[in-house]
């Protein structure tokens, strides 16, 4: 029987169907929406159970082929996934570690930049390069980052032919390790911009550049952050591998900023994975906790925190969850997103909120609670965790009595990426992994720009004119 692979459709319903390769190279849909599959491929309970005896690479190949099989051959997919995960320090890629009875950390920081973004980005970069070489031409990648996506994109795309990479990070709002991982890149095709603003400002500028259709076409603009569906598909894999290893449905606690990593859990559920609950763990930038608990999606001012990768007040991927929760009502979704863009506030209809709450729970954690959790985990378990993972663990401890099944907290970054916060809380200096050796010696290269789309566009055009 011939396998049927889903086309991808826009959440806003005004763009034509696209192939996986189209979406890989485009990122955002032309109508401003986000791509999702027209139907979710299904993975049975027996298939999931069989993953317990499989290598992570093989599970990733099986799941990603269900989306990408119409654009790439099995050999191409297998080659790129195998090469991607050969760069990881742990062959298990996303190992589960039981830290207390029925409380697990899923370590997602064994890739090149020591953060969970590598799990998807290393695959995406290789498939992206392959798709581009098949079609010919060049691409301009523009990426807004709150800290980790930028370095992961640079690690995946730096040095590749026919690709120019522009990374915008909020000036002074990422850790020194995060910044240096981006700004010390030796590759000539990597261009860093320190934006005088917040991550939300950087993300808004990227979306506005995509909306300038003539400019976007002229430079072949694309995105590799979590608005690119390929990232979501690749991140869904570790929800399957964790569940297979546990042998029963779990509650997953996900440190959440832009909503991509936790939505990957919803994607896994829609593919048939049994999950008890997806817990959205936010820091003081708690737009998602307020949306789920109060029923109003309302942005505020971004507050700097000890977990800077989550300092986000507009969670782009929430649009995907709203689309699904509304029964894929693109007309309502388009109006809702326009209303939110205008009013910075969106009351959620009762049916949408009920659907979201059936799948998700949410809570917040302030800096004091983050510090106390790092100290508690180090004192009780002898383990250092980064501030983002600490936000997840705080949520797990807080909600333990209400969650069913084993609890899996996604450990999203290595503690060495945030040494000041970890040492300040625990008194212990996280050891510097070999991957970061020499990081503080490399020369930094970046431009500082005001929070102005026109300035960013002019900078990109100047760099492309003289690569």
Kindly report the CATH topology of the domain at 96-112 and 230-426.
Answer: Rossmann fold
Mean pLDDT rating: 95
Q: What is the CATH C level class of the domain at 96-112 and 230-426, in words?
A: Alpha Beta
Structural class, by secondary structure, is alpha/beta
What's the arrangement of strands in the largest beta sheet? 3-4-14-9-10-13
How is this structure best described in words?
With 467 residues, this protein is of the alpha/beta class. It has a domain at 96-112 and 230-426: Rossmann fold, CATH 3.40.50. 45% of the residues lie in helices and 15% in strands. The chain contains 20 helices and 15 strands. α6 links the parallel β5 and β6. α3 packs across α11 (237-246), α4 packs across α5 (117-135) and α17 (367-381) crosses α19 (419-426). The longest helix has 19 residues, at 117-135. It is globular and about 55 Å long. It starts with 7 loop residues before the first strand and ends with a helix.
């Amino acid at each position: 029987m011939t396998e049927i692979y889903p086309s991808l459709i826009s959440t806003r319903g005004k763009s034509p169907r696209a192939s996986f390769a189209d979406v890989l190279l485009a990122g955002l849909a032309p109508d401003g929406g986000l791509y999702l599959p027209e139907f979710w491929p299904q993975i049975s309970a027996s298939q999931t159970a069989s993953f317990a005896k499989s290598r992570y690479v093989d599970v990733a190949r099986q799941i990603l082929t269900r989306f990408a099989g119409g654009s790439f051959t099995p050999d191409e997919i297998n080659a790129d996934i195998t090469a991607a995960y050969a760069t990881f320090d742990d062959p298990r890629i996303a190992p589960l570690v039981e830290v207390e009875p029925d409380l697990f950390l899923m370590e997602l920081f064994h890739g090149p930049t020591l953060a969970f973004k590598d799990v998807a980005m290393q695959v995406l970069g290789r498939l992206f390069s392959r798709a581009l070489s098949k079609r010919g031409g060049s691409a301009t990648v523009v990426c807004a980052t709150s800290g980790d996506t930028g370095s992961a994109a640079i690690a995946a795309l730096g040095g590749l032919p026919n690709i120019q990479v522009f990374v915008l990070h909020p000036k002074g709002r990422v850790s020194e390790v995060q910044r240096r991982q981006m700004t010390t890149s030796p590759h000539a095709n990597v261009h860093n911009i320190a934006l005088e603003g917040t991550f939300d400002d950087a993300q808004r500028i990227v979306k506005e550049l995509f909306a300038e259709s003539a400019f976007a076409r002229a430079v072949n603009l694309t995105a590799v952050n979590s608005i690119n569906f390929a990232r979501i598909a690749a991140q869904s894999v570790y929800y399957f591998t964790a569940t297979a290893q546990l042998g029963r449905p779990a509650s997953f606690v996900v440190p959440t900023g832009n909503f991509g990593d936790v939505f990957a859990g919803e994607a896994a559920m829609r593919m048939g994975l049994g999950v008890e609950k997806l817990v959205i763990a936010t820091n003081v930038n708690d737009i998602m906790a307020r949306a789920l608990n109060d029923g109003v999606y309302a942005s505020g001012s971004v507050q700097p925190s000890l977990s800077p990768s989550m300092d986000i007040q507009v969670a782009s991927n929430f649009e995907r969850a709203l689309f699904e929760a509304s029964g894929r009502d693109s007309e309502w979704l388009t109006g809702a997103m326009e209303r939110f863009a205008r009013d910075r506030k969106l009351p959620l209809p009762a049916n949408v909120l009920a659907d979201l709450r059936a799948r998700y729970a949410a809570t917040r954690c302030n800096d004091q609670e983050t510090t106390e959790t790092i100290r508690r985990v180090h004192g009780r378990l002898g383990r250092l965790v980064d501030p983002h993972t600490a936000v997840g663990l705080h949520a797990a401890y807080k909600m333990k009595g209400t969650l069913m099944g084993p609890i899996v907290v996604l450990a999203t970054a290595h503690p060495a990426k945030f040494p000041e916060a970890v040492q300040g809380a625990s008194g212990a200096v996280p050891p510097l992994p070999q991957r970061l050796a020499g990081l503080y010696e490399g020369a930094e290269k970046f431009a500082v720009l005001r929070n102005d789309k026109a300035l960013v566009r002019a900078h990109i055009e100047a760099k492309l004119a003289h690569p």
